From TrEMBL:
PANTHER family: AMINOALKYLPHOSPHONATE N-ACETYLTRANSFERASE-RELATED-RELATED (PTHR43877). InterPro entries: Acyl_CoA_acyltransferase, Bact_Acetyltransf, GNAT_dom. This is GNAT family N-acetyltransferase. The lineage of its organism: Bacteria, Pseudomonadati, Pseudomonadota, Betaproteobacteria, Neisseriales. Residues 1-146 form the N-acetyltransferase domain. PROSITE patterns: GNAT. It comes from Deefgea chitinilytica. It comes from the Bacteria. Keywords: Acyltransferase, Transferase. Pfam families: Acetyltransf_1.
């Protein structure tokens, strides 16, 4: 397994993983996907962390490091869209991607890393706890457009 930041040539593998995460999402037009992918890759502080096995992307997490003026101007990190291909689950790939993302956050001197999930299953929530995430410290809210 290789852990690394995703690059321009990884779009197809990323899209495959994201279909597993949100199977009801409409398929993006190729030009829209490409434009957004390039924008993500060029976004300062954003890294799509991937686990690659035998040339195939098997897990990913998106890391965003946000500059900050509190906590002695230390940034904070957001982690989203964590997913592993179903055929590779329960083999440590998601944990490895999360550890890779957290290492990058700590190297950037982040004072915290936040992760949100829409998963409600106790297994998924326990997985995040085993990866070092603690619930109950803060309350999270989400607003969505009408």
């Amino acid at each position: 397994m290789q852990l690394r930041p995703a690059g321009e040539g990884d779009l197809d593998g990323i899209l495959r993983l994201l279909r597993e995460l949100n199977p009801d999402d409409p398929e993006l037009a190729a030009d829209v996907a490409q434009a957004n992918w390039l924008a993500m890759l060029n976004q300062s502080g954003l890294t799509v962390c991937v686990a690659e096995l035998a040339g195939e992307l098997v897990a990913k997490a998106t890391l965003l490091i946000v500059p900050n003026l509190t906590r002695n101007a230390r940034p904070y990190a957001l982690i989203e869209n964590v997913v592993t291909l179903p055929t590779h689950r329960k083999r440590g790939f998601a944990r490895a991607v999360l550890q890779f993302a957290l290492a990058r956050a700590w190297q950037a001197n982040c004072y915290k890393a936040m992760l949100s999930t829409s998963a409600r299953s106790s297994g998924v929530l326990e997985f995040y706890r085993r990866c070092g995430f603690v619930d109950g410290i803060k309350t999270g809210f989400i607003a969505v457009p009408d």
